[in-house]
Design goal:
Layout (H helix, E strand, L loop, with lengths): L1 H23 L6 E3 L3 H7 L6 H11 L7 E3 H13 L8 H11 L9 H10 L6 H11 E2 L4 E2 L1 H8 L6
Antiparallel strand pairs: 1-2, 3-4
Helix pairs in contact: 1-2, 1-4, 5-8
């Protein structure tokens, strides 16, 4: 009985992987552009760092990289990542703590220039495109501020399944 449930779980995971992959298989030939792999993985509720994403791609890429990833190579690796619960998002409380460290005056918000400076110059820096994408989601358009509690709540969604 437990084995049947485990197999049903694997089957469900594989269906979700197939569905996410198919969105980017524009030619319907069981391949996607390697540049889409990060988006596919994130759509499945996993959030690799750039280094982790590079490792995943290296693991599934053909011996001679052609810029495309085949589904048959992607499926076992992504199934393992999901079944072993790897590449999980950062918990809400840790994200909130990170924003609170940046908010030294404890105002409950950050200005976009300040956040951009931190995220493009420290640690694993955001690209300009990543920064613009984040600000488009995080910025309160009326006040031109980032109310990070609201942003963190929005960003920490439940599992997609």
């Amino acid at each position: 009985m437990a084995e049947e449930r485990a197999l049903a779980g694997v089957s469900e995971v594989q269906k979700k992987i197939r569905s996410a992959f198919d969105v980017f298989d524009h030619e319907q030939n069981q391949t996607v552009d390697v540049r889409e792999i990060g988006t596919i993985i994130r759509s499945l509720g996993r959030f690799p760092t750039e280094a982790e994403l590079h490792d995943v791609i290296a693991e599934i890429e053909e011996e001679e990289p052609a810029g495309f990833i085949r589904f048959e190579k992607f499926l076992p690796t992504m199934s393992r990542i999901l079944m072993e619960n790897k590449l999980r998002p950062v918990p809400e409380d840790l994200l909130l703590q990170a924003f609170e460290v940046l908010d030294q005056q404890k105002k409950g918000h950050l200005d976009p220039e300040e956040l951009s400076r931190y995220l493009t110059q420290e640690g694993d820096p955001f690209s300009q495109e990543e920064m613009e994408e984040m600000l488009s989601a995080a910025l309160d358009p009326e006040k031109n501020l980032i109310f990070y509690r609201d942003f963190v709540s929005m960003m920490t969604a439940d599992e997609p399944w």
